[in-house]
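Reading is simple: each integer encodes one residue's backbone shape. The lines below illustrate:
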Amino acid sequence: MKLYPAIDILGGNAVRLAKGRFDTRKVYDADPEAVARRFTEAGARRLHVVDLDGAREGRPVNLGHLAAITKQLGAQELEVPVQYGGGLRSLKAVAQALRAGAARVILGTAALTDPTLLERALRRHGAERVMVSVDSRGGQVVREGWTRAAGVEVREVIERLIEAGVRALAYTNVDRDGMLEGPDLENLAWVANVAGGVGSRAGASPRRPAVNLLYSGGIGELADLEHLAKLRAELHLDALDGVIVGKALYEGRFTIEEAHEALRAAPGA
């Protein structure tokens, strides 16, 4: 499994939220580029950057920070892909993020509300460069910077996205995000099964292309990562490709190298 250290940018700062609530922001560094440098120097092999201002405003706000991070990685001659999301609700915004250096863009609200945009983004940039984030609160999908319920269940959304050609998904349990209380293993198992084509609804294609799923929410200690790796191995959840970790790294609960080792802990993980 792959580790994606998270850099969430709000007001120009690297922050973390609790349960997706903007009024709980905690600033960890006034320089997101410095955070990216520390993560990569500590061994990060990829980065997950979220434009929280953009998610709230509906347009990318922190493309300058994205460009600075990717330029810095280039200057260090590091091949560390950066995936970027937040406020990407038009083809223009998607193209801007890719030009700023994102290896992969993350669509959230737009993928749920504008299927034409999703279709055009996949066709223009390829499924390997377009990820969709499915964020859940109380079993229901939320959108627009985690501020509104979409009124649909996670399973329905994931099946719809896969049938639309999405091959990279990120699943976040917003109720656990930033709480350091452990991952939502039960729901993750069935989400990964759906992503892998197990238990899909009647009429869905019985043979699906490979889908990569990232999990986010609640990681607080190394044992949480070990449990994810063990779950993947024991239940043969091949779709579960990686985990996004933020607050635990900022709080010094473990190092990036320790996280890499934990994700290798289970046979076949």
Observations:
- Residues 63-75 form the longest helix (13 residues).
- The CA atoms of residues 96 and 243 lie 26 Å apart.
